[in-house]
C-alpha cells in the first residue's frame, strides 16, 4: 500500500493517479542514521526535517551516490539458485571514487540491470550492501517500463536533445501516466536513500535526468541535507524546455539541490535562462562561482566536463592481449587510412550523417577511393521505438550503397560493427585509426575523443615492442553540438548537418602533415590527462562542500506542497515579525515612528489599479491620527498621485520620489530635500533612455519631477536585463559630471539627484522628532525592495548617532523571505495589512499627548 503523501504528491503534481501494483516489502535494510534529539515524525506525511540543530556526534566522511543503475554486473548462477555480482569497471560512478580521499566511504543507490524475483530481493539487498556498499532500488515492472522506456526515453531524452513531438508518431505526445510513473520511481529511489542515510553527516550526489525530482523527496524529509545533482545530458534552450508540460515541477525539484552541475556553459546558461523566464530567478557570479538565490538559499552552478579514467585505459594498453589485437588490425587494414567512429545506436548520434560525409569525401576526393576506410562501431541501442528503427534501416541502406559503389575486391570503404565491443578491442581500433570522427547532432559529453587521445599516446613504461620515441599524433573531427567540443580546441569542429563541410573536414584531417597532427595531439593530451574523472569528481565534491558550509548555521524550514515544496533558509537573527510582540511593544510606547513603503508593501506589485483601497486608507488614517504616532509613507512615486490618493489622511506625512519631496501633514507645504534644483541633466539622460526604449519592446520611461525611471518589467526577461545593464553603464558615462546617481532596481534603471534616498528621509524624521523632545521609543519600518534597504541600514546606525535611544523598540521589516538588512520579514502585503490592522485596533485617534503628560504630573 502506498503512503498517503505519495498519493497526494502525484495528485497535486499531475492529476489523477493510475493504479500501479507494488509488492509490499517484507523487510527494510537497517537504518544507520545517528540523529541526536527526538525524531518525532518519520512518516511520509510530514515534510519536516528530522535533522536537529545540533550536529551528530558521529563524524564520518561519507557520500551516497544515487543513479539510475548501480555500478555492478549481475549474473544468474549456473544452478539458477541466486545471483553472483561483480563491479562494473566501465561505470562512471565507480570511477569517480578516485577523486575522493581514502577515508571517504561511498554508498551507491540505484537499480539493477536484471529483474530480481520479489522473493529474492531481500537477500540480494543484504548481499549488495554487505559486499559492495550498494543499495538496490527494485522497481515494479509496470513502473519500470513507464519510467525508463516511457518518460525518460520518450519524453526527456528527445526533448533534451532538441526533438519536439510534432506528431503522435514523431516522438510521442506527453503522457501524464508516464510522468506519474517517473515520480513513482523517484519516490522509490528516495526511500532507499532514506534507509541508509545519516542526514547530519552524509553528502548525497544524484546523477542524470532519470532522477531530476529526487531532490524534492529528500529535501522534504531532511531540510539541511547536503545534496548535489549532475546532469550528464544536454540541457536544452528555454524555447525547447518550455514546451514540457511539467517544466516548473522539474525546475523546482532541481532547485532543492545545493549544487547543480553541467558539462558546458551552454547547458548551464540554458538552465539559468529557464529559471529566469519561468521562476523569475536571477543568478550572480562572485569570484568565479555562479549562484542562484532561492528563498534564502544559494544554489551553486557547477560547470565541469567529465573526464575519463586514465588508469583503466593505461592498464588495457599494457595488456599483452592488446598488442596482439593491434597487430591483427594493422594487418587487416594494411595500406589503408582508417577513420574511426564509436557511437551508441541512437537517433542523435548522427551515424548516417557520418556515412553520407564519407560517401561525399570519396566522391569529392577520388584519391581516397581504395585507401580510406571508415570503421563504425555501433554500441547496442538503449532505447527503442519507431524513430530508432527507421534510423537503423537508413544506416544499413547507406552502408550497402557505399560499399557497392566504391568497394572492390579486398577493399570495403565502410566497415560497420553492430555488436558490443569491449574496451580492450576498442583501444586496438583507436591505435590503428588515423582520425576519429564524431558527428552527433546533440550529445551531452561523448568521451570517445578522450579515449582515442590517450590510446594514441600509449604508455611510456610499456614493455611493448613499439618504439616509444616515435612522435605521437592524432586527429579529431568533432561535431560542434557535443559537450566535449569546447575542450578540444585542436579538433576540426563541424556542423554535422552540412555533409559537404564534414566531408572536407575528414579529408583535411587525414591529409594534414604529421607535425601538425603531433602539435594538436600534444595539446589535447595535456588537457585530457590532467582533467580526468578523478579531477572532475574531486572538483564537484569540493564545490558541494563550499555550497553547504552554512547549512547548520542557518534556520531552515520547508514550505509548499507537492513540487512547489522548497526550503527557506535564513540567518538565525532573521525571523518572521510576531504580531503579538509588536502590539505589546506598541502599547508600551508613546513616541512612535512608523515608516511605510507603498508599492509591494501595502499595495501588491501585481495589482493593475495602484490606488489604495478603502481598507488601506482607513488603517493608515487611524494610525496617523493617533498623536503618539508619526506616520510617513515613503515611496518612489510622485507627490501628486500620493497626495491625491491619501488626501483623507490629514495627519499622514508623505516622502515622495524617494524623499526628494517631503510633507509632514496635509496642511503643510512640500519641502525639497535635494541638494540642488538644477535638472539640466534631464536633457542628457532622456535621449539615452529613449534610445533603449525604442529598441526594447515592452519597456517605457516614467518621468517624475526629480527623476527619470526606465521600466523593463514587461520586456523579454533576458533582453531587458541585458539592456538595463548596458543602459546603466551608458548613463553613468554620460552623467559622470552631473549631480545625480544612477541606480538599478527591480526591473528599473533610475536617475535621481545625489543625496536623495529613503535612508536620508528616515534619518530626517528621527532627527526632527528628537529635536522636538520626542525621541522615538518605537520604530516600525516596512519595505520590499533595494531602495528600502537604505532605511533599514540607517535605522541600524541611528542609535549610535543619538537620534534613537538604545532602549527603542525597533522593527525593521522586509516583505518576502529574502536576504535583507532588516531583522524581520512578513510574507506579503496581506500579512503587512493584517499587522497594521492589529496596530490600528490598539490606536487612539482621540489621544492628546499634552493631556497625558499633565495627568501624569498630578498627584
From TrEMBL:
Per its record, the protein catalyses: D-glucose 6-phosphate + UDP-alpha-D-glucose = alpha,alpha-trehalose 6-phosphate + UDP + H(+)
Q: What is its EC number?
A: 2.4.1.15
| Alphabetic keyword roster | Glycosyltransferase, Phosphoprotein, Transferase
Enzyme class label: transferase
UniProt-listed GO biological process terms: trehalose biosynthetic process
Query: What are the record's GO terms for cellular component?
Result: cytosol
- Quick check: keyword Transmembrane helix in the entry? no
> What GO terms are given for molecular function?
alpha,alpha-trehalose-phosphate synthase (UDP-forming) activity; trehalose-phosphatase activity
Q: Which InterPro entries match?
A: Glyco_trans_20, HAD-like_sf, HAD-SF_hydro_IIB, HAD_sf, Trehalose_PPase
Family annotation (Pfam families): Glyco_transf_20, Trehalose_PPase
Give the similarity note: In the N-terminal section; belongs to the glycosyltransferase 20 family. In the C-terminal section; belongs to the trehalose phosphatase family.
Question: What PANTHER family does the record point to?
Answer: TREHALOSE 6-PHOSPHATE PHOSPHATASE, TREHALOSE-6-PHOSPHATE SYNTHASE
Q: What is this protein called?
A: alpha,alpha-trehalose-phosphate synthase (UDP-forming)
